[in-house]
Specification:
Helix content is about 25%, strand content about 25%. Strands 1, 4, 5, 6, 8, 9, 10, 11 and 12 form a 9-stranded mixed beta sheet that branches. A two-stranded antiparallel sheet has the order 2-3. It has one domain: Alpha-Beta Complex (Spore Coat Polysaccharide Biosynthesis Protein SpsA, Chain A), CATH 3.90.550.10. Strand 4, helix 3 and strand 5 form a beta-alpha-beta unit. By secondary structure, the chain is an alpha/beta fold. The protein has 7 helices and 13 strands. The mean pLDDT is about 95. The relative contact order is 0.19. The longest helix has 13 residues.
Length: about 230
């Protein structure tokens, strides 16, 4: 069975201040559902085995996960002092070529998960951008839709070939991907994201970019984004 790893360990300081009030994935997005429901349901419908990488209020996330058959949780005890690369490493036994990596604070159309192909190389989903801010993770790609630059530290402006990463990817080459994650951790890089491994693999293999057009997408990092996502789901 294919695996989908939902990374939801973060403490959401920009949204909650001290970050300990409630995990973002458990924010109510409709009267009867939270963000996590809208990730788990379409993934299970598509035959994915779901594993949650938890941290902040693991107890609440695990309790919610019990509503779904087969959803497992793996706790990152260092979530407060590390970033999602460490959460991903806790889940390494579940990583295969077909594995999806998904940030747990996303509100997306369920068709988003149909955008990947079976190509045996890393694949990332992006969306067009009208502007970038300091937190934007930019992805620049060539005419073959292979990434040539990516990161929060590049200065490219929005264009047809410079889009924003959604926080959703397909591993594609698990052996090489996990090897790069391990290299980063062994070198003391613990405050970064799994995408840094993709970035480091540019030039060694294609990092395929799929651009989502005209689709529902919210990365819930601020109160304003949360309110906009709720309005869109109403």
């Amino acid at each position: 069975m294919k695996n989908a790893l939902i990374l939801c360990a973060g403490s959401a300081r920009r949204l909650f201040g001290d970050g300990e009030n409630n995990p973002k994935c458990l924010l109510p997005i409709t009267a009867n559902s939270v963000i996590l429901d809208h990730l788990i349901r379409p993934l299970q419908t598509r035959g994915y085995n779901i594993i949650l990488g938890t941290g902040c209020r693991h107890d609440l996330v695990a309790a919610h996960a019990e509503r779904y058959s087969g959803v497992r949780c793996v706790y990152n005890p260092d979530y407060q002092s590390t970033n999602s690369i460490v959460t991903l490493w806790q889940l390494r036994d579940f990583v295969a070529d077909s594995t999806l990596l998904i940030n747990g604070d996303l509100v997306v159309d369920e068709s988003t998960f149909d955008a990947f192909t079976d190509e045996a190389t890393p694949q990332i989903l992006t969306i067009p951008a009208t502007h970038f801010d300091a937190d934007s993770y930019r992805v620049v790609f060539d005419e073959n839709h292979s990434a040539v630059r990516m990161g929060k530290d590049i200065e490219d402006v929005p264009s047809v070939n410079c889009t924003a990463f959604t926080g959703i990817s397909r591993v594609g080459n698990a052996k090489r991907f996990l090897g790069e994650i391990e290299n980063l951790l062994q070198n003391g890089t613990r405050d970064t994201w799994p995408t840094t491994a993709y970035r480091n693999l540019i030039g060694e293999m294609p990092i395929r970019v799929h651009v989502l057009q005209d689709t529902l997408f919210f990365d819930v990092d601020t109160p304003e984004e949360f309110e906009a996502a709720k309005r869109a789901m109403a």
